[in-house]
Amino acid sequence: MNERTQINTLNTVNFAAMRVIREAFDDAVKEIETRRGKSLLPSDDTRAKVARQILNLARGGERDAIRLREGALSALHIV
């Protein structure tokens, strides 16, 4: 019984954090499109780099979508 509790605890998803992460990612992609123009949409590689950077910042405790977005864009020199 105790093992089951541990597994569930480890697999719990913080939906509020996921919502902020998704919002930051979507906003970052829109920002790239705005700055580069619709003719130069972000590549899958660029989108993956943005996602990884946002996740790294979130793992470090950041929970503000604007700071996540800006941190990812500036760290990757996309802007």
Structure description:
The chain is mostly helical and about 80 residues long. It has one domain (about 15-75). The chain has four helices and no strands. It has helices at about 1-10, 15-35, 45-60, 65-75. Helix 3 crosses helix 4. It is elongated, with a radius of gyration of 15 Å. The model is unreliable at about 1-10 (pLDDT under 50).
Question: Could you write a compact summary of the structure shown?
Answer:
With 79 residues, the chain is an all-alpha fold. The protein has helices spanning 2-10, 15-36, 44-59, 65-75.
SSE blueprint and pairings:
Blueprint: H1 2-10, H2 15-36, H3 44-59, H4 65-75
Helix pairs in contact: 2-3, 2-4, 3-4
Largest sheet descriptor: none
Number of strands: 0
Structural class: mainly alpha
Assign an overall shape. elongated
Distance between the termini: 51 Å
Oligomerization category of the chains in this entry: single chain
Domain count: the total is 1
Measured as a percent range, the helix fraction is over 70%
Succession of helices and strands: HHHH
Strand content: under 5%
The total count of helices amounts to: 4
Mean pLDDT: 84
Mind telling me the C-alpha Rg? 15 Å
Low-confidence stretches: 1-8
List keywords for this structure.
disordered N terminus, mainly alpha, 4 helices, elongated, 0% strand
